[in-house]
């Protein structure tokens, strides 16, 4: 039983792209997961293969039609397909490791990539789509965001990562940013590796790493900390707050 990803897109040629290389690509070759990119245009029946139309109420750009998107979803999901349907959009809830873990633990995911101005809201609601954003910036479409989400999920599928590349002790597994890493040489351009790391005292190393992780998190991402300072930082992030569903 493998983890199955289906991507609905107007640009199926963008896939597998980077997901065909490295860890994810090796996992694909070994059948640990599968990736199917489906052209939304393939479900159209008119001569011009129309997928979009002008927005009601006016404004720039084009909106993907609900009937076309619904037909693309139906064609991609056989009867009884229980995989969650995720729509990549800057209006979505922020992608976090918690959602990545939940998606990776399931049977797979169906991803809808938007282009143009958006997707008719009715099909998003009718299909119960989960709207997800990968960050507070606007990409030219959902395809790169879909790749980001898939990369994050696929590395958690059992067997994809070797024992050498443990997914455990790293940023966001513990809700802290990772401590800094060093390797040989012990001195480089006059910069010495912190002495504690050369000491061989495992307990002291662990204590130092924990302190470093807490310090860098306080400095760069206080919003990750469950402290008053962290809650203040979260409250100052209006886009995140607005994007998080009630
Ligand atoms: N499509 C365009 N921008 C996006 C973003 N930031 N996240 C997810 N999908 C997007």
**Shape, per Cα inertia axes:** elongated
Mean of residue pLDDT? Answer: 92
Radius of gyration: 22 Å
Number of strands: 10
* CATH fold group of the largest domain: Alpha/beta knot
CATH class of the largest domain: Alpha Beta
Written as H for each helix and E for each strand, in order along the chain, the element string is EHEEEHEHEEHEHEEHHH
Number of domains: 2
Distinct ligands, ions and cofactors found in the model: adenine
CATH superfamily of the largest domain: SPOUT methyltransferase, trefoil knot domain
Structural class: alpha/beta
Looking across the biggest beta sheet, what order are the strands in?
Answer: 2-1-6-5-8
Q: How much strand?
A: 15-25%
Features:
single chain; 246 residues; alpha/beta; Alpha/beta knot; Trp Operon Repressor, Chain A; 2 domains; five-stranded parallel sheet; three-stranded mixed sheet; 10 strands; 32% helix; binds adenine
């Amino acid at each position: 039983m493998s983890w199955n990803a289906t991507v609905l897109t107007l640009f199926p040629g963008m896939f597998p792209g980077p997901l065909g290389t490295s860890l994810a690509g090796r996992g694909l070759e070994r059948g640990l997961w599968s990736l199917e990119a489906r052209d939304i245009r393939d479900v159209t029946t008119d001569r011009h293969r129309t997928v979009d139309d002008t927005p009601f109420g006016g404004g720039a750009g084009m909106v993907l039609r609900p009937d076309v998107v619904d037909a693309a979803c139906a064609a991609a999901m056989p009867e009884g397909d229980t995989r969650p349907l995720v729509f990549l959009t800057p209006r979505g809830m922020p992608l976090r490791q918690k959602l990545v873990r939940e998606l990776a633990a399931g049977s797979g995911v169906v991803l809808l990539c938007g282009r143009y101005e958006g997707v008719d809201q009715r099909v998003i609601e009718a299909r119960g789509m989960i709207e997800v954003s990968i960050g507070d910036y606007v990409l030219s479409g959902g395809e790169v965001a879909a790749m980001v989400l898939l990369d994050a999920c696929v590395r958690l599928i059992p067997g994809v990562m070797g024992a050498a590349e443990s997914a455990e002790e790293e940023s966001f597994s513990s809700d802290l940013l990772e401590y800094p890493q060093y390797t040989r040489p012990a001195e480089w351009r006059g910069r010495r590796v912190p002495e504690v790391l050369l000491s061989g005292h495992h307990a002291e190393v662990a204590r130092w790493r924990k302190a470093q992780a807490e310090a860098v998190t306080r400095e760069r991402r206080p919003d990750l900390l469950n402290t008053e300072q962290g809650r203040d930082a979260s409250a100052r992030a209006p886009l995140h707050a607005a994007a998080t569903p009630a």
